[in-house]
Amino acid sequence: MAPILDPHTLEFVSRNPTQTHRLGVRLGALLPGGAVVCLEGPLGAGKTRFAQGIGRGWGAEQTLISPTFVLVREYDRAEDDVRLYHVDLYRISGAEEAFGLGLDDFLGDERAVCLIEWAERARSLIPPEHLWVRLAFADGDPLRRIINFTAQGERHAALLRRFRREAFGV
Ligand SMILES: Nc1ncnc2c1ncn2[C@@H]1O[C@H](COP(=O)(O)OP(=O)(O)O)[C@@H](O)[C@H]1O
Ligand SMILES: [Mg+2]
């Protein structure tokens, strides 16, 4: 199910972790250098699971593991010199501390793809053009997640349109 709310928004209900991962694979395969993907949602919502799918689809040479303790992990892929940065801001107190991590060195850089868990903790650092993904628990079913995508800026909107077409055929 993928109701289209408006051209810049997409909402999907995932029934289990495998489905969330698979959706990430689809998105990861489409991510161009410069893409910024923000992942918002409570602990256990599936941000890391989704990011792991993205890493797989993008072609990361290693399986993504949660950067909760190191805050940033970097991944390469064989086909080019774009690098994937997986960031987790759960442990930071705010934008100032996040700034200290040097995120601005690669956020939005054409040779970087950025996945940022808990992006809402450093909103002022997030480039204006991004794909915001919100994961929420659904009532009544412990395996269900509502996943909402909102694109800001034309490049990310085009990315979201392509993702919708390829993942949902609409
Ligand atoms: N539909 C679903 N999508 C993603 N994860 C799910 C789903 N249903 C259950 N889970 C479970 O929820 C947990 C999500 O963990 P994780 O991805 O680390 O969350 P977060 O990074 O948001 O804290 C995993 O244990 C996963 O198996
Ligand atoms: Mg996580």
Please describe what this structure looks like.
- The protein is α/β, with parallel strands linked by helices and 170 residues long.
- The protein has one domain: P-loop containing nucleotide triphosphate hydrolases (Rossmann fold).
- The chain has four helices and eight strands.
- An eight-stranded mixed beta sheet has the order 1-2-8-7-3-6-5-4.
- Strand 4 and strand 5 (83-88) form a beta hairpin.
Q: Quick gist of this model?
A:
It is built from four helices and eight strands; from the N terminus they run E-E-H-E-H-E-E-H-E-E-E-H.
Q: Cα distance, first to last residue?
A: 11 Å
Tell me the fraction of residues in β-strands, as a range: 25-35%
Q: Give the neighbour order of strands across the main sheet.
A: 1-2-8-7-3-6-5-4
- Low-confidence segments, ≥5 residues, pLDDT <50? none
Largest sheet: 8 strands, mixed
- Approximate helicity band: 25-40%
> Treating each run of at least 4 consecutive H or I residues as one helix, how many helices?
4
User: What is the CATH level 1 assignment?
Assistant: Alpha Beta
Bound molecules: adenosine-5'-diphosphate, magnesium ion
List the helices and strands and how they pair.
Elements: E1 4-6, E2 9-14, H1 17-28, E3 36-40, H2 47-58, E4 72-76, E5 83-88, H3 95-100, E6 112-117, E7 130-137, E8 145-152, H4 154-168
The structure holds adenosine-5'-diphosphate (ADP) and magnesium ion (MG).
